[in-house]
Design goal:
Distance between the termini: 12 Å
Order of helices and strands: EHEHE
Helix content: 25-40%
Largest sheet: 3 strands, antiparallel
Structural class: alpha+beta
Radius of gyration: 10 Å
Length: 58
């Protein structure tokens, strides 16, 4: 299956708790961390929720 590379570019400070939890669910909880995840609808939905704090490649 295809993979996508996600990098955290924004801080979760002063964000809602569900957005922080979404970042942790993606494996991103500190600035400039990068994860390579499978490109599934579930992951895409999580990215859509925090799109202003992450950058996506692939």
């Amino acid at each position: 299956m295809a993979t996508i590379k996600i990098t955290q570019t924004g801080s979760p400070i002063r964000r809602e708790k569900d957005q922080r939890a979404t970042l942790i669910g993606l494996g991103l909880n500190k600035m400039h961390r990068t994860r390579e995840l499978e490109d599934t609808p579930e992951v895409r939905g999580m990215i859509r929720k925090v799109h202003h704090m992450v950058s996506v490649e692939g």
